[in-house]
Specification:
By secondary structure, the chain is mostly helical. It has 17 helices and no strands. The mean pLDDT is 86.
């Protein structure tokens, strides 16, 4: 009735690997690292696959939620890896040798061909092996983004890991041909949208694009969890306590990730003010919403034990709305200067949502990848807070403990600044003996 020991060991080992994979990452690669981990978190599509059903279109609520989760996840995967490549291209020099990253996918295709042959012969012995290989490629992808010399290889390894993981998972769910066609439609739609978004953004828009993609992962995780609960109720299946908790957490963390990422995108993109939201009772509001979420979890578990599933749906939807509101308020309470760090926090959240989905579906692959992203995102948050002289608790908890200031008070806190025109800047650069360029985390 509890979690499998193997999943717990896998979870713990992945936490350690995630810690050591990014602890020595160079500052210039912080944003590309966030982008590649965000792309890998699109493995939430695996949860969507498990809910696919119907014919050429879904028939039930659970199947529809699975279809939406799959499409949003694929947008994130394709767009995320292309955004990572764009970021790395900013470091590319004219005399760098030509690269052929698609050649690295040949071993993956060979592995999938061997897996297909083994399926035809009636053996599934390769399934755990290829799932482990997918996880190892994702580990290599994140670790590779720690240094300039291996960054491009890391992006390619991440792509190989996700491609292999999604392909193996799709084969393992053993869908009929008509439902496979349905999945391929979602893959084409999601891939096309992700490709279009990634190709139209300019270099200065890449960080906020990563934040926008984060929101898709959060939505996909929440949809998958709610859809899984609907499927369990529809087929009157038993649900263990560990599954119920994992399902609730995937919904709750996904909600925070979704709305928090939307606010982060709006602040970076200039759609909303970068000034922190200064509500008088900010901290009590956040504490109340967090405490109420715990209450919703208890109510959900009570409904599960009594098999009162209508109450369970109410508790789950209430938790989703509450977490979405909490994510919105916490992120809005952070000033624009801290938003790059907030994105790493949200990146970590997307990993924990994926990890909860792994426990929910008893998937070692999702547990590995989720714990890897969650722990690496947490370490990267710590690294960036130290580099930017920020209090990590202040950032994570939406400015907790600081005095909320009114916009009129904040408008008075301006130091002296010196403006310069283009010609004067060109003259200063021309006459300078040495020039030091200090890039911000937003670039």
């Amino acid at each position: 009735s509890g979690l499998e020991p193997f999943l717990l060991w896998t979870f713990g080992l992945s936490l350690i690997i995630g810690y050591y994979s990014v602890f020595n990452v160079v500052p210039a690669l912080h944003s590309p690292l966030m982008a590649v981990t965000n792309a890998i978190s699109g493995m939430t599509a695996v949860g969507g696959f498990s809910l696919i059903g119907g014919g050429i279109i879904p028939y039930s609520t659970a199947q529809t939620l699975g279809a939406l989760a799959t499409t949003l996840s694929i947008i994130n995967v394709v767009g995320g890896f292309l955004v990572t490549a764009k970021m790395l291209d900013m470091f590319r020099r004219a005399d760098d040798p030509e690269e052929y990253p698609m050649m690295d996918l040949i071993p993956v295709c060979i592995a999938l061909f061997g897996y297909a042959v083994s399926g035809i012969l009636g053996t599934s012995a390769l399934s755990p092996t290829l799932a482990l290989l997918s996880g190892l490629c994702c580990i290599g992808g994140i670790a590779g983004l720690s240094t300039q010399s291996t960054a491009r290889l890391g992006n390619t390894l991440g792509q190989a890991g996700v491609f292999l993981g999604l392909a193996v998972s799709l084969i393992r769910v053993d869908l009929p041909l008509i439902q496979l066609l349905q999945v391929f439609i979602y893959l084409i739609i999601g891939g096309s949208v992700g490709f279009a978004i990634a190709n139209r953004v300019s270099p200065t828009e890449l960080p906020q694009t990563v934040a926008a993609f984060h929101s898709l992962v959060g939505i996909a995780a929440s949809l998958t969890a709610i859809g899984e609960f609907a499927r369990i109720v529809h087929y009157a299946q038993d649900m263990t306590t560990s599954t119920a908790i994992s399902l609730f957490l995937a919904t709750w963390i996904g909600g925070i990730t979704a709305t928090g990422s939307m606010i982060a995108f709006g602040k970076l993109n200039g759609n909303i003010s970068s000034a922190p939201l200064a509500l008088k009772y900010r901290d009590p509001i956040n504490i109340t919403m967090a405490a109420t979420s715990i209450g919703a979890l208890l109510l959900f578990l009570i409904a599960k034990s009594m098999q009162f599933y209508a109450l369970g749906f109410i508790a789950l939807f209430f938790a989703a709305i509450l977490s979405a509101t909490l994510g919105l308020h916490v992120t809005a309470s952070i000033g624009g200067g801290d938003v790059p760090v907030v994105i790493t926090v949200l990146n970590s959240y997307s990993g924990w949502a994926l990890c909860a989905e792994g426990f929910m579906l008893d998937s070692a692959l999702l547990t590995i990848v989720g714990a890897l992203i969650g722990s690496s995102g947490a370490i990267l948050t710590h690294i960036m807070c130290v580099a930017m002289n920020r209090d990590i608790v202040h950032v994570i908890l939406g400015g907790y403990g600081s005095v909320a200031k009114s916009p009129s008070a904040m408008s008075l806190e301006h130091g002296e600044h010196t403006e310069i025109d283009l010609d004067a800047a060109a003259t200063m650069l021309k006459e300078a003996f040495s020039v030091v360029i200090v890039p911000g985390y937003g670039l």
